[in-house]
Amino acid sequence: MADGENVNDNAQVNLQVHPQPQPQLQVHPQQQPQVHPQPQQQLQVHPQPQQLQLQPQQQLHIQPQQQLQVQPQQQLHVQPEFQLQSQPVRDLPGLLRAVTSIRGAAGTTNTERSAMSAENQQWLMNALGELCCPSDDVQLMKQALALLEVEMGREKEESRSRAKNEEDEDVEEWDERVQRQERALDTLLEITEVVDNSRDFCKLGGMNVVFTGPLLSLAPSLRHRAAELVAICAQNEPMVQSCVLSLGGLQTLLDLVDKDTNEVVRVKALLAVSCIVRESEVALHEFVEKDGCSLLLRSLQNESPRLRAKAAFLVHCLLRSRPHLQEDFIAMGTVQQLGMMLQDFHEPSHEHIAGALCCLASHPMGLAGCQESALGLQHALRSRISELGTNDQFQEEKEFCEHLMEIFAADSPSNGAMDR
Question: What ranges does the record give for the region Disordered, renumbered to this chain (predicted)?
Fold first, then answer.
């Protein structure tokens, strides 16, 4: 037994050089019950050198990986979360941008997928809750309207004071007040893009505040924001359109279109008029009664291309959807005016001018006006069709011009006065 013990003590060397101890290990009474797999058991029993080699490898490889991978990821993910929580989310596109920015700030790519942290999950749930609950938007509208009312009252008082004392207000203070009102109107513009919020805006008395305050302000930046706010709220909203009419707002908007000295104000005011009268028979009737058609023709002669484009669009829409207005426009010389405009230097308004002429040409009196040789419309149409060519940007305008030529060709046997 002493020799066997020496063999076991020196197993790391003697097993490879001296195979003599192996028969002694097989005869040993402690290993007899294991029925002859002793050589295999020796190979399995002696992985002690391998265990000594594996343990340091696991320690060397696992610890550095945990330090290098876990700690930087936590730092990269935590910082964007605190920045995102301060950003307001008012709609689903805004929420999508915010969630996307989390991945972008963390340096992830489109092919990487990782579990959302608890902080990001909580932030996302809060944002979804805000989108589903309109109460926050109502509170914001109330705050914005309250600010506008306060500033409106101050402006009226100071206007009376200046009339008496002839003292000018401090320019810096005036600019600050205007900027506060601009921010309030910008907030309302963003919130009322949601249809339900535009209705709530009217229920809160928002239209009354707009028409008695910023829409009449001395600051053009407030007037054009207020006019745009009316347009956004009134578009496709009968309740809002009725609210504007009940306040006498249509006349206020028409006056801005006709008389305001600021181009942007006139454009936004005409946009509001268009949103109100295009879908409301009551508003359209009032528009015609207030000589709105003549206002549109004057706007077509304005030097502002943007105002001309808005006016041409509304004329085209009214003639297309309200054929009974054709005679009114024809009686005002609209055919001749539009025909002359179509021969001017090409501009965006010409698409709707050509469309309006198509509508007028469907009426016998309008067709006769289009075919007057003095107008020279057919020659102008041929030149314009050639000029537009195959440019997809002006495809609709080209189709209107071609349709006019077809109308003229169909009527040519009965009209010898056409220009050739």
Answer: 1-59, 152-175
DSSP string, 264-314: HHHHHHHHHHHHHHSS-HHHHHHHHHTTHHHHHHHHHTSS-HHHHHHHHHH
Q: At the top level of CATH, which class does the domain 304-420 belong to? A: mainly alpha
Cβ neighbours of 42 (radius 10 Å): 15
**pTM value?**
0.67
Q: Which of 237, 217, 233, 214 is nearest to 272 (CA)?
A: 233
- Select from 3.10.350.10, 3.10.20.600, 1.25.10.10, 3.20.20.150 the CATH code of 186-290: 1.25.10.10
The answer to whether residue 244 scores a pLDDT higher than 60 is yes
How far apart CA 142 and CA 395 sit, in angstroms, is 46
CA within 13 Å, CB half, 110: 0
Round to whole Å and give the CA distance between 388 and 395: 8
Average pLDDT of the residues in 298-310: 96
More confident residue, 133 or 345: 345
Q: Is 342 exposed, middle or buried (0-12, 13-18, 19+ CB in 10 A)?
A: buried
Residue 185 has pLDDT above 60, yes or no: yes
Paired tokens of 119: 């902080």
From residue 356, alpha-carbon distances to 20, 167, 257, 343, 351 in Å are: 113, 52, 21, 15, 9
- Name the segment(s) of the chain with CATH classification 1.25.10.10: 186-290, 304-420
